[in-house]
Design brief:
The structure is a single chain. The chain is α+β, with helices and mostly antiparallel strands and 408 residues long. It has a domain at 3-76 and 112-180 and 272-403: FAD/NAD(P)-binding domain (3-Layer(bba) Sandwich), CATH 3.50.50. The protein contains 10 helices and 19 strands. It is globular and about 65 Å long. The chain starts with a strand and ends in a 21-residue tail after the last helix. The relative contact order is 0.18. It binds flavin-adenine dinucleotide.
């Protein structure tokens, strides 16, 4: 016999978990299906896992409102209040500080698994959760949706939320097309011990692609180095000592000595945006709807904003006596999020292209641009406002408010 829900969320990553919890707290009957095992909270002595995200103040605010933030272990959070971006000379770069936008922090670096697991745990009493089984089939009709899991379980729902990542099965089953661009690069990721990261997110734009140092607790950093595939593979193949020296050399001393800790990994870099966010009873959130270049650390932030916006439009719809999958409600979500996300996706794509042009003329122009931005406090403030998740139309669940490490 099948069970009935208002909403079935497919995918228990950061975004699916946040969407499921936000909707359940709004008293929708919610099911959440995750193909893998339930996300697990790392043990205190476990080294940081490789997949981390930089959460902006808006995303942090959402986790606070969902009463998850205060449960995160303080010693696994990497706060930063400054960001420094440069090309060939570290002293001629662009510097942003939290104070530019009257914030106390610019963001926090966290392991994806930790965030997903904390949300999953918080949802245990409010969300009906399935793990270790994936969605295999989807039937959409006038009266509702039926989601069939690999173990044969059938879940009936008014609305299906696809939060199953960049290769979304639900998106495919709903027949939604994507616009994809492969950068032909890999993002090499690793955790390194550094001398001093100065609570700063560092990013150097090399002609081959950006190298980012995202600060973690205890003077560790998560690095993301975007490189053409051949060079990335070569970097992955070198021994630990050579890897550390190459990263340290490229960093131009921003964090002092660098020592590789543990494993390295690599992800192909893509830009992707779906043509539709909504089709019949299916709505897309997170990487199922959009994938961005990691250079500004915005992927998870955009997805969390989708989750907050979806919860808001559904709540407004219910006040108007509409069901979860009401077409008017879903259209307002699609209009809101597709246009906001399109701006960020295009901006990141242009930045990636701008820094990819390695000629003296372009280098000169970029230097002039950096100097102008450094001198214009109002412009820095505006850029930070957007990167913090407080530009454009802001969901109620993430309404602006300063965050501080002292509050954790
Ligand atoms: C190198 C790199 C660095 C990045 N750095 C940052 C950063 O600093 N800041 C930032 O904000 N973002 C960053 N991102 C992007 C960020 O990691 C993603 O945008 C974010 O994790 C997407 O979350 P999601 O929940 O939408 O998808 P995912 O995390 O992909 O989760 C999807 C979930 O769905 C499950 N699933 C898949 N198929 C099925 C199915 N058929 N049935 C059931 N479940 C299914 C999967 O098991 C998975 O748990 C980075 C990405 C890369 C590649």
């Amino acid at each position: 016999m099948s069970e009935h829900f208002d909403v079935v969320v497919v995918g228990g990553g950061i975004v699916g978990n946040a969407a499921a919890l936000a909707l359940a707290r709004d008293r929708w009957q919610v099911a959440l299906v995750e193909a893998g095992p339930p996300p697990a909270i790392p043990k205190p002595d476990d080294p940081p896992t490789l997949r981390v995200s930089t959460l902006n103040p808006a995303a942090i605010e959402l986790l606070r409102r969902l009463e998850v933030w205060d449960r995160l272990p303080v010693d696994r959070l990497g706060w930063f209040d400054r960001m420094h971006v440069w090309e060939s000379d570290i002293d001629l770069g662009l510097s942003f500080s939290a104070a530019d936008a009257r914030l106390t922090q610019l963001g926090c670096v966290l392991e994806n698994e930790l965030v997903a697991a904390s949300l999953w745990r918080a949802g245990e009493s409010q969300v009906r959760q399935w793990s270790g089984t994936q969605v295999e089939a989807l039937e959409l009709s006038e009266s509702g949706a039926v989601v069939t899991l690999a173990d044969g379980t059938e879940l009936e729902a008014d609305l299906v939320v696809a939060a199953d990542g960049a290769r979304s099965k639900v998106r495919e089953l709903a027949g939604i097309d994507v616009d994809r661009h492969a950068y032909g690069q890999l993002g090499v990721v690793a955790t390194v011990a550094v001398e001093d990261h100065q609570d700063t997110a560092w990013q150097r734009f090399l002609p081959t692609g950006p190298l980012a140092f995202l600060p973690l607790a205890n003077n560790r950093c998560s690095i993301v180095w975007s490189l053409p595939e051949t060079q990335a593979k070569e970097l992955l193949a070198c021994d630990d000592e050579a890897f550390s020296r190459r990263v340290e050399e490229a960093a131009q001393g921003c964090v002092g000595t660098v020592t590789l800790l543990g494993e390295r990994g690599a992800f192909p870099l893509n830009r992707m945006h779906t043509n539709e966010y909504v089709k019949r009873r299916v709505v897309l959130v997170g990487d199922a709807a959009h994938v961005v270049h990691p250079l500004a650390g915005q992927g998870a932030n955009l997805g969390l904003a989708d989750a907050a916006a979806l919860a808001e439009v559904l709540a407004t719809g219910r006040d108007l006596k509409r069901r979860a999958a009401d077409p008017k409600t879903l259209r307002s979500y699609a209009r809101w999020r597709r246009s906001d996300n399109a701006i960020m996706i295009e901006a990141l794509h242009q930045i990636a292209g701008l820094y990819g042009r390695d000629t003296p003329g372009w280098r000169g122009l970029r230097l002039l641009g950096a100097r102008a931005i450094n001198q214009a406090g109002w412009l820095r403030g505006m850029l930070i406002q957007h990167a913090s998740g407080f530009g454009g139309k802001v969901p109620r669940l993430v309404k602006p408010r300063a965050v501080s490490a002292a509050e954790t």
